Amino acid sequence: MSLGITLTAFGGLHAYIAVRLFVDPQWPAPWSVLGPVLVALLFVSLPVGMFMSRREPTPVTRALQWIAFIWLGAFGIFLSAVVAADLISLVLQGAGVVHDALALARGKAVAVLAVTLPAVVYAFVTARGRARVERVTVPVAGLGAGLHGLKVVQISDIHIGPTLDGRWLRRVVEQVNALKPDIVAVTGDLVDGDVESLRDEVKPLAELRAALGVFYVTGNHEYYHGGPAWAAEVARLRLTVLQNEHRVVERDGARLTVAGVTDYNAGNIHPAHASRPDVALAGAPDGVPRLLLAHQPRTALSVAHAGVPVDLQLSGHTHGGQVFPFMFFVKLQQPVISGLATIAGVRVYTHRGTGYWGPPLRLGPAPEIAELTLVTVE
Predict the structure, then answer these.
(1) Reported pTM
(2) In terms of DSSP bridges, do strands 312-315 and 339-343 run parallel, antiparallel, or are they unpaired?
(3) Given 106, 123, 199, 223, which residue has the most CB atoms within 10 angstroms?
(4) Are 323 and 233 in the same domain?
(5) CA 372, 178, 130: angle at the middle one, nearest 5?
């Protein structure tokens, strides 16, 4: 879809919101004028903010980016509320419950604003707050007694960039380290920017601590900003980068294969980085349970197609939908939205994301740090 078509569509939807909230209710001046003007300015903020993201950061450009990102998410919430209010009003009018069209229009506008404004504030506080620790116990067949109770802590979709920085990342690292993990898994979409711009912001990753290792795989967003360069930078921070490869960890005589693949779509940008579960697990020891790190849940389909056994896949990418109502559209691209599920015979844990992409808002799915405890099957 071209930029012109996208802006035209967004402009039309903004006009729809302005009409329903400020024109139809026939508010007295100055609200009847200020309301539509405000909606128009918020629409303009979207292309302006995106353009400013390519300029040298200054207090002005950062402020414009923040406004654009917040409105990008708030727009979806407002639009959903206005559509819902219109549908409800049609039902009420059709049933003959309401006869005063002006009173209905004003009541509808007040109801939309009363619901959406607090929702946007709540979504902002949730997105910027501390990640929720989700604790899940996963039975694994063949897991040796020495690894019973193995604690894997997963973070994903961190998206260090325009509105998330190194101070925020350090708080996440402190939360992870406080859980005393045996393994830390970082499952992609670490950044929204290139290495040169964000090198200092991702430094706290070097402070992650885990008894058996800290492992990282790329997400699709790394490949928008130089995937191979980011893999090298993360390796420089002394994380183990798994690019279609595996390692075997051991404790008290029990072993676990930890494998990782590049992002599902990486091969479209860097053919040499095509995601290959079969290559990642080639030569892995037989009879040893297998943990696979793969950014997108649908990698499980590739795993099943390749016929390579995997006991548990850790993924992210979906953000759990991030902002209502977008979680209902995730299923158009991914087989699962969040949580533990089985996809084509492969058990997959899909992480809701520790950070956020774009809008600093989370309405519904809270940010997550997953603590997965692997236990032997009785």
Answers:
(1) 0.91
(2) unpaired
(3) 123
(4) yes
(5) 85
Count of domains in the chain?
Answer: 2
Same domain, 86 and 99: yes
Token pair 């930078």: residue = 233
8 A C-beta contact, residue 65 and residue 53: yes
Give the amino acid at 138.
V
Q: Which of 244, 177, 178, 222 is nearest to 316 (CA)?
A: 222
The confidence band for 54, taking pLDDT boundaries of 50, 70 and 90, is: low
Q: Please write the tens of the pLDDT for every residue from 283-338.
A: 999 999 999 999 999 999 999 999 999 999 999 999 999 998 888 888 888 999 99
Instruction: Answer yes or no: do 124 and 154 share one domain.
Output: no
Domain of 273 in residue numbering reads as 132-376
Whether the predicted pLDDT of 377 surpasses 90: no
Distance CA 111, CA 103 (A): 12
- State whether 137 and 58 are in the same domain: no
Q: Is 234 helix (H, G, I), strand (E, B) or coil?
A: helix
Does one domain contain both 145 and 115?
A: no
Count the helix, strand and coil residues of the chain and give each as a percent rounded to the nearest 5. 45, 20, 35
Q: Where are the beta strands (DSSP E) in the chain?
A: 132-140, 150-155, 183-187, 214-217, 240-241, 245-251, 254-260, 290-293, 312-315, 339-343, 346-350, 368-376
Question: Is 69 in the same domain as 138?
Answer: no
